[in-house]
Amino acid sequence: MSGDLQFDSNKRLRHLLSIDGLDQKTILEILDTAETFISVGERQIRKVPLLRGKTVVNLFFEASTRTRTTFEIAAKRLSADVINFNIGDSSTNKGETLLDTINNLEAMHTDLFIVRHIDAGAAHLVAKHAPSHVRIINAGDGRHAHPTQALLDAYTMRQYGKDFKKIKVAIVGDIMHSRVARSLIHILNILGVPEVRVIAPKTLLPVAIERLGTHPYFDMYEGLEGVDVIVMLRIQRERMQGALIPSEQEYFNLYGLTEEKLVVAQDDAIVMHPGPMNRGLEIDSSVADSDRATILPQVSNGIAVRMAVMALIMGGSKKNKEAGS
Amino acid sequence: MGYLIKNGHLIDPGNDISKKTDIYIDDEGFIQAIGKAPEKFKTIGEIDARGKLICPGLVDLRARPREPGLEYKATIESETLAAVSAGITTFCCPPDTQPVIDTPAMAQMIQHRAWRFGMSFIHPMGALTKNLEGKQLSDMEALDESGCVGITNGLNPVTNTLVMRRAMEYAVSFDLTVFLHSEDPWLHGDGCVHEGEVGTRLGLPGIPEAAETVGIARDLALIEHTGVRAHFCGLSSARAVEMITEAQSRGLNVSADVTAHHLHLTEHDIGYYNTQCHVMPPLRSTRDRDALRLGLQSGVITAICSDHQPHEPDAKLAPFAIAAPGISGLETLLPLTLKLVDKKLLTIEKAIALLTTNPAKIIGVDTGNLGIGATADICVIDPEQRWILTEENFVSRGTNSPFIGWEFTGKVTHTFVGGELVYTASDND
Questions:
Q1: In this structure, are B350 and B210 located in the same domain?
Q2: Cα separation, B392 vs B254, whole angstroms
Q3: Which residues of A touch B (CB under 8 A)?
């Protein structure tokens, strides 16, 4: 269903709305393309001309610094013009609908929208109603999806030598409210990861999560046993008010990742975090700063992966374009 | 001088009649004779209903004409016309208009407006509490006197259990029926879909089945305590059907309805954020839908309603959670019910009873049957006509429906209200 919207009639990626609906081939093509872009960030002149003359709009209806910045850098390294709209959560109260906003910006002849919205399904709605030449990348919609985060996480796992067909991955924390978790669960399943675990108290696990291809655990030690990759999720401090967890202290004791808990994982297990981290709540500083942590490489990889997605969506892989220009 | 409807198959569940016959309507708008022509009967019009069904006009327990308050969505004029085009000659309007139906003046105004257009009747439902705030009791007796057929707080919860108890006790004193949308507001929270696999996959906040069962459990305890007569509106889960079954078997005076869409759709129909499937209560699992169908068969649920909620197109062009809930349902009430007959889940007689005599009994009005002397509110149906629902063939101002593109069998050809022929299908002249 989302696949129909995401691909054009020639089965080429048109929009990136969710991982759900992508096939293994498309995902690997994005990861391979990202690999060719890694070196761009290391050059003295960090630019390629793939999107020269194109206008990319960062349309953020929800506050974000990291994701918006990496999208902006990615677009600039592809030589696109970038406009940032930070509309905030209150936009819908100002009377203008989401589609009105899109139509207004489209009238300024823009080519690609990077959309983040507090409501699940917002990017799908935009993709369904936007003019046919406009492309959409979902930068996070409610609890639903954050596909570029999942792609950069998969990229990072591969970079650290993890073979998708053999590894066990544990995702720890607030699965319930996490679009990162949902997209990650989908990508790992599509890439053939044999065991995806989710670890959290029942209050933070959505119903029927096992039906998405996961094994739920309430106990951190049991869940981390023998895993190759640990993905820690950010815990929002508001969750205490919603009676979802009792206290920061109890959460850290039970689910905070410490060196002591890390011992039960594989010796070469890596520790990932989509950021921003709460040190001392979901992760201990000694783990976050250790060489097991891949948190900073994730950020750099995020730029290359986002460049790859933009390049593919805006017309062909890097190789084709460079050969032609 | 009246109308003759001849050669049709009369289905009048209230009088246990299902046979081929002729119907004579007198010039006062009442049924004068059935079968044999009265002496000196002269017609001003004759309808040959060969091959057609003749039924009482349909009675819909819940439809919002959007007036007063939301006239940009629909009006009493537009929606009473849509109603008669769908064979509905009477519908009940919930009190959540703007302003709320919590005064006799509002109740009378709505009836008067409907009467002026001369299409379907509207029976208002009075507010259970002032401004539906769940705090202070409304003037229930005065609302009853001014034509309200029931009292309800609609979808607005009465969170204070003592207020609900008092409201029920007060209703008992004046022999009023309380209509309940039982749901625990905290468990509902910010939910917009059934809490299940589909909601988890789409990242939409869920409403657990327990929101409904906890609400029903509380209200059943209070019904038992107060002895009030109560009607549960729009059941959505298998467990809810079980609870009402059990309450009825213990002798509590409770009835229940279900919406036509909950008998056909499930959470899976939401697909990828189809906002036309955003409804309250939410569409639940296939198991729940099947239990609602069984509830009709067993007689625990005795009415099907449209829960008509017309919207302007923009109301649905939004992310799922903030898109307005509700379906424009008047025109699919009968077709969706006839689909259950096609599927051999109901007999045609039972299906018609669920849309006519049963809901009329629930609101205590003398319509929904076609005995001699009854008001001639009549719906003539061509049971063979096949048609496809399109946005263009809506009569209602709201075309918000998940059923667009569905094929139906059976269509209303003529509708009489009080002996007046108010609707004739254009392709059946």
A1: yes
A2: 40
A3: 1-2, 5, 20, 92, 97-99, 117, 119-122, 124-125, 129, 141-145, 179, 182, 206-209, 211-212
Residue B369 covered by a domain: no
For residue A207, give the nearest of B195, B203, B314 by CB distance: B195
Q: Is B102 helix (H, G, I), strand (E, B) or coil?
A: coil
pLDDT, average across residues B308-321: 95
Answer whether residue B135 is part of any domain: yes
Could you tell me the residue range of the domain that residue B419 belongs to? Answer: 2-54+374-428
Calculate how close chain B gets to A120, using CA atoms only, in Å: 6
The structure tokens listed for A157 are 């796992």
Say whether B320 and A120 touch across the interface (CB within 8 A).
yes
Whether residue B76 sits in one domain with residue B26: no
Phi, psi angles (nearest 5°) of residue A202: -60, -25
Whole-model pTM? 0.93
Is B307 one of the annotated active-site residues of the chain?
A: yes
Tokens of B161: 């259990």
Among the partner residues B196, B197, B202, nearest to A120 by beta-carbon distance: B202
Say which residue the tokens 């059946």 belong to.
Answer: B428
Is residue A47 pLDDT above 90, yes or no?
Answer: no
CATH number for the domain spanning B275: value is 3.20.20.140
Q: Which amino acid is residue A302, in one-letter code?
A: G
B189 and chain A: CB distance < 8 Å anywhere?
no
Could you give the number of structural domains in chain B? 2
- Whether cis (ω within 30° of 0) applies to the bond prior to B124 is no
Check residues B48 and A108 and name the one with the higher pLDDT.
B48
Interface with A, mutate which of B195, B202, B204, B275 (most A CBs under 10 A): B202
Domain closes at, from B363, B384, B414: B363
Cα–Cα dist B178/B228, whole Å: 7
Q: In B277-290, which positions are buried (b, 16+ CB within 10 angstroms) versus exposed (e)?
A: bbbbbbbbbeebbe
User: Which residues make beta-bridge pairs with B23?
Assistant: B5, B34
The structural domains of chain A, ordered by start, are 2-144+300-319 (3.40.50.1370), 161-293 (3.40.50.1370)
Tell me: do B174 and B316 sit in the same domain.
yes
Shortest Cα distance from B364 to chain A (angstroms)? 42
Quote the CA–CA distance of B152 and B256 in Å, as a whole number: 14
Question: Cα dihedral sign for A302, A304, A310, A312?
Answer: negative
Q: Is B385 left (phi over 0), alpha (psi -120 to 50) or beta?
A: beta
* Residue B13: CB atoms within 10 Å: 24
Whether the CB of B322 is below 8 Å from some CB of chain A: the reply is: yes
pLDDT in tens, A147-188: 999 999 999 999 999 999 999 999 999 999 999 999 999 999
Tracing tokens 């889960």 back to the chain, one arrives at: B237
Whether B219 and B351 share a structural domain? yes
* Reported ipTM: 0.91
